[in-house]
Specification:
Blueprint lengths: L41 H8 L7 H29 L2 H7 L11 E5 L16 E5 L7 E9 L11 E9 L4 E3 L2 H17 L4 E11 L8 H7 L5 E7 L7
Antiparallel strand pairs: 1-2, 2-5, 3-4, 3-6, 6-7
Helix pairs in contact: 1-2
């Protein structure tokens, strides 16, 4: 710590070493006192720096060095205190605010109670949405992912259907009924053509209108606007070739 202080604080006044003269102990009654019994507070250091000059030039230099050390320690302590306590307000202000909207920009809700099941077709329930006001879209499309028991005891296979784009507006709304009717018919025709019958699980999601109609799972996930929501249906409409 001393090496960082100005050099002129350690210069001697005069040349050579001062002549040492023994001072009787009686002139300094505290000489024999144990240094550990003295106070080491900041006041004690100030008091010590004002001792008599009869100790000679060498003692004056020593006292000057002690004063410098005391000052350096005091400054270091002050800086440590400031470093530990001065920036507490800035730390709290630097914490980013929690976003008002979490997750995908759109949330879908299915009204499954409004659908009357029929085994001849799979009907997609009415779909309502709530959107992040800072991430609104004007057009989107419906993506359907579904699976069901295949004919002939084959293992179920996951299928993906991507619809055409449709207009959507505002922070809340519903997908048009005719749009969902067309999606339901396309899904039912697909199940018949691929000999899929029985319990079918369907998951739907909204995606950006720029999604390729022949996109694979990776591109679909990259352009989805909502999480997947699911519903189940029982489909029984056998095809002659099945």
């Amino acid at each position: 710590m001393l090496s960082s202080l100005p050099e002129d604080l350690f210069r001697f006044s005069g040349t050579g070493f001062p002549k040492l003269t023994r001072i009787p102990d009686s002139a300094h009654p505290d000489r024999g006192q144990d240094i550990c019994s003295r106070s080491h507070s900041w006041e004690a250091e100030v008091w010590y720096s004002g001792a008599s000059s009869q100790w000679g030039e060498e003692d004056s230099v020593k006292k000057g060095v002690i004063q410098v050390i005391g000052l350096a320690i005091g400054l270091a302590s002050g800086f440590a205190f400031l470093a530990g306590c001065g920036n507490q307000g800035n730390k709290s202000s630097a914490v980013p605010a929690e976003p008002k909207w979490k997750g995908a920009p759109y949330r879908l809700t299915l009204d499954t109670k409004a659908v009357k099941p029929t085994p001849a077709a799979v009907t997609i329930p009415p779909v309502s949405f709530t959107a992040n006001p800072e991430a609104l879209e004007t057009r989107a499309l419906l993506v359907m992912r579904f699976s069901g028991p295949a004919a002939g005891g084959a293992d179920p296979v996951d299928h993906l259907m991507i619809g055409r784009a449709v207009d959507i507006h505002g922070e809340q709304g519903t997908l048009p009924a005719d749009y969902l009717d067309q999606a339901s018919k396309s899904l039912s025709d697909y199940l018949v053509a691929h000999c899929i019958q029985g319990d079918v699980k369907v998951s739907i999601s909204l995606a950006r209108s720029s999604l390729n109609p022949l996109a694979q799972d990776a591109e679909v996930d990259a352009k989805r606007l909502s999480d997947w929501v699911s519903f189940g249906a029982t489909f029984k409409k056998p095809h002659m070739k099945c």
